[in-house]
Amino acid sequence: MKHIFLLCLVMLSAGGSVVSAQTLNLVTKNGTAQIRTNDIDSVTIQTTTVTFIKKDRTTQVVNIADLHRMTFTLTTGVKDSKQSSALNALSLLKAYPNPTNSTSIIEYQIVRPAEVEMQITDATGKIIKTVMLGAQGAGIHQVEWDTLNNGSISVPTGAYTCLIRTNTGETLTQKLLIIH
Question: Which pTM was predicted?
Fold first, then answer.
């Protein structure tokens, strides 16, 4: 989750780029919050919390463990008819539980229909599991990995990478820890 907040910082500081974030939308177990990015002066990332320090010196603290979803409202310097197909075409929403000892659910969102597949690779990059998820419509989807390889054998304890790919070229990755 800490890596997602680092990505958030990059997006917030990309003021001169073609794509910029107008608002940061946070969904936690306690409710939702929307922060205008122009109001943010700085962000402090701790082990368990992220603190947004606003220009008016008020703060907003988010407990990372309570965070369910984080999205951005984006503006671009590109007209919608020519907007990049990769822009937000595929986004990771969450993977849980992580670490796990039995199954992990990977939740992702696609903005237009696509053929989707999931691959799991081990720490050496070897593909140990492939699941063709088929044609999926725009929206939020989930895939469950039962920590079994293509031969239906439980994988050993270790670090794995889940790759979600579409036939339109988008790929997202999520690190998963398996502990038996």
Answer: 0.53
